[in-house]
Q: What sequence folds into this?
C-alpha cells in the first residue's frame, strides 16, 4: 500500500468514527431535548450505523476514483434519508468526496458532482423526517458544500499552476542545454577553421622551403641549410599555434591560451612569406583605427590564406601585394599576385579554385557582415579582397 492510500484509509476511519458519533449523539431524543421536532425520526440502530460507515468507506479510493467514490457515498446517504434516519449524519464523508472530485477532476465533471451533491442533499432534507423547520441548517450545509467544492478547485488550479512552472523550468533547462551544445559546436567549428588555417599555411610554407632545399642541396649547401632552418622555424611556429588551439579543445575553454593574431602582425607574416620564397609587399593606407577583435582576426586570416594560396599556386617568380586600406566605416583588405599557376605546388596550367581554406575565409568575412571577392585579375594573376563594415566610427 502506498503512502497516499494509507493516508486515505486513515482519513476514512476518522471520518467514519466522527460520523457514527454524530449519528448516535444527535438522535431523536437529543433533537427533541433541544426543542426540535422529530416527526417520527428513527432512533440510531445497527442498520443506520452500517449505512453511515458505508457512506464513509469510499474515502479510501477518493484519489484513484473520486467520481465513482462520490456516487458510491451518495447511495448510503440517500438510504439514510429514505429510511427515516434524517439527513446530515454522513455529510462529513460527502464533503470529503466532493472535495476530492473538485481537486482531481476537470471543471465539467466537478460541476456535475457539485450539482448532484446539492440536489441529493436538498432532496433528502425536504423529504426527511425533521421537516422544513430546520431549513436554515440545510442551507448552511449547502453553502459549506459549495465552499468545499471551491477549495478543491483552488487546490487543483494551484497544482496545475505548479506543474506548469515545473514544465516551463524543464523546458528552459533543455533550451539552455541545447544553446550550450550549439555554442560549443559553433566554437569547435571555429577552432577547426583556425586549425585548418594554421596547418594549411605553415605546411605549405614548409613544403615550398623543403622543395627549394632539395633542389639546391648539391649545388649550394649553405642555401639549403638556411632553407632547412626556415623549415624548422616554421614547424615550431605551427606546433606552438596548434598546441594552443588543441588546448582549447581539451579544456573546453572559450578563449585561446595566447593572444590571437591581428592586422598588426601582418609584417611578421609578410616576412615569413618572403623567407618561403614569395616576394610580398605590404601597403597600409589611411588612418589606422582600433578594430573589433573578430574583424581583426578575420582580416589577418584572410591575408594569411590568400598568401598561402599564392605561394602554392602562383608559380616561380610571382610577386604578391597586400593592401590594407582604412576607410570611413570600412576596412578594405586586398591580396594580389601576378602568378600564372605553373610553379612549384601547382600543376602546369592548373586553374586556381576556391578550396576549403578560402571557403572558411568566406564564412569568416560573412560572419562579420563583410563582402569577399575571389578570382583572377583581368591582366593576369589572382586577387582575394575582403571588405569589412566598421560601426560606431571604427
A:
Amino acid at each position: 500500500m502506498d503512502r497516499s492510500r494509507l493516508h486515505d484509509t486513515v482519513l476514512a476511519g476518522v471520518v467514519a468514527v466522527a460520523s457514527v458519533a454524530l449519528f448516535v449523539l444527535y438522535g431523536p431524543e437529543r433533537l427533541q431535548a433541544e426543542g426540535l421536532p422529530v416527526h417520527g425520526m428513527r432512533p440510531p440502530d445497527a442498520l443506520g450505523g452500517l449505512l453511515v460507515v458505508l457512506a464513509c468507506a469510499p474515502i479510501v479510493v477518493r484519489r484513484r476514483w473520486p467520481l465513482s467514490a462520490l456516487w458510491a457515498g451518495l447511495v448510503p446517504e440517500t438510504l439514510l434519508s429514505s429510511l427515516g434516519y434524517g439527513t446530515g449524519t454522513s455529510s462529513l464523508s460527502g464533503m470529503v468526496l466532493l472535495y476530492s472530485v473538485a481537486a482531481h477532476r476537470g471543471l465539467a465533471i466537478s460541476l456535475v458532482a457539485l450539482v448532484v451533491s446539492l440536489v441529493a442533499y436538498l432532496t433528502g432534507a425536504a423529504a426527511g423526517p425533521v421537516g422544513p423547520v430546520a431549513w436554515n441548517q440545510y442551507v448552511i450545509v449547502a453553502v459549506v458544500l459549495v465552499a468545499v467544492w471551491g477549495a478543491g478547485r483552488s487546490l487543483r488550479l494551484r497544482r496545475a499552476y505548479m506543474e506548469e512552472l515545473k514544465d516551463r523550468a524543464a523546458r528552459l533547462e533543455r533550451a539552455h542545454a541545447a544553446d550550450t551544445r550549439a555554442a560549443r559546436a559553433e566554437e569547435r567549428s571555429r577552432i577547426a577553421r583556425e586549425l585548418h588555417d594554421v596547418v594549411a599555411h605553415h605546411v605549405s610554407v614548409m613544403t615550398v622551403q623543403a622543395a627549394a632545399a632539395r633542389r639546391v642541396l648539391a649545388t649550394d649547401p649553405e642555401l639549403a641549410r638556411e632553407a632547412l632552418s626556415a623549415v624548422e622555424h616554421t614547424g615550431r611556429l605551427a606546433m606552438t599555434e596548434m598546441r594552443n588551439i588543441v588546448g582549447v579543445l581539451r579544456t573546453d575553454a572559450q578563449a585561446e591560451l595566447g593572444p590571437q593574431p591581428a592586422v598588426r602582425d601582418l609584417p611578421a607574416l609578410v616576412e615569413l612569406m618572403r623567407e618561403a620564397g614569395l616576394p610580398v609587399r605590404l601597403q597600409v593606407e589611411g588612418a589606422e583605427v582600433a578594430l573589433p577583435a573578430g574583424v581583426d582576426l578575420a582580416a589577418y586570416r584572410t591575408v594569411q590564406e590568400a598568401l598561402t594560396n599564392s605561394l602554392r599556386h602562383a608559380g616561380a617568380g610571382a610577386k604578391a601585394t597586400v593592401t590594407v586600406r582604412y576607410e570611413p566605416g570600412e576596412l578594405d583588405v586586398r591580396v594580389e599576385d601576378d602568378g600564372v599557376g605553373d610553379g612549384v605546388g601547382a600543376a602546369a596550367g592548373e586553374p586556381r579554385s576556391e578550396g576549403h581554406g578560402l571557403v572558411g575565409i568566406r564564412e569568416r568575412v560573412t560572419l562579420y557582415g563583410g563582402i569577399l571577392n575571389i578570382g583572377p585579375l583581368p591582366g593576369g594573376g589572382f586577387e582575394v579582397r575582403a571588405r569589412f563594415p566598421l560601426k560606431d566610427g571604427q
